[in-house]
TrEMBL record:
Organism: Oceanococcus atlanticus
InterPro entries in the record: UbiK
One of the record's GO cellular component terms: cytosol
Coiled coil: 46-73
Protein known as: Ubiquinone biosynthesis accessory factor UbiK
GO process terms (BP): ubiquinone biosynthetic process
Length: 75
């Protein structure tokens, strides 16, 4: 987000160079406000959920195998 705000401030016409820092800060604030409304998750939250899902998937595979064993033993 910092990089995007910086890029936006760099493409300003030369006459606006004196207000570049203020505009960059405003760009950053607007971007943060808009992104916060998108209901996004942080990279850390994503990684935690990803790890949880991987463990759950592994557990599901194990349980499916166990059910299959029990069904085979019953027959």
């Amino acid at each position: 987000m910092q990089e995007l705000a910086e890029r936006l401030s760099q493409v300003l016409p030369p006459g606006l160079a004196s207000v570049r820092d203020e505009l960059r800060d405003n760009f950053r604030a607007v971007l943060q406000a808009q992104l916060s409304e998108l209901d996004l998750v942080s990279r850390e939250q994503f990684e935690v959920q990803k790890e949880l899902m991987l463990r759950l998937r592994q557990r599901l595979v194990e349980l499916e195998a166990r059910v299959q064993e029990l069904e085979n033993a019953k027959d």
